[in-house]
Request: fold
Amino acid sequence: MIGYGNIMTITKYDYSFYERSFIMLSYMPYIWIILAVVFMVIEATTVQMVSVWFAISAIITTIISTLKVPIVVQITVFVIVAVLLLIFTRPFVKKYLNLKKQRTNADRVLEQIGKVTEEIDNVRGTGRVMIDGLLWTARAKDNTIIPIDTEVKVERIDGVKLFVSKASLRVES
Reply:
């Protein structure tokens, strides 16, 4: 002890198990806040109401963790609150929020009638159809050749290609 006087050095092994647990508990509110922020960022990048329940649960657990309750209790509270929120509020929120799939511009041409502007031949890989003033690449649904000026009905879309079939004759009365 020469030169140190009565100063006692403390190493990490000098803390008892309970003292280390108390130190860890003092960091837990920050950990729960970080988790809440992470869940909110995940929710912001998705539109499916996936992780908002976990963010709320982490915020509630942050409040509980300030009371220095054991970590096992905090994790249990987090899981129970998240499950309860999922079970009881998710169906309600999904019912009243407008999370319906929005049709895109491409979806609007489904089932519409167009006019062939370039002969559709799947073997040669040619074919164009005009629908609502827009020119689309087209392929025949049934691999038949469809001549120019034929009216066709859009059956499906694959990427930017329309798959069409000859439109049935319209009977007007």
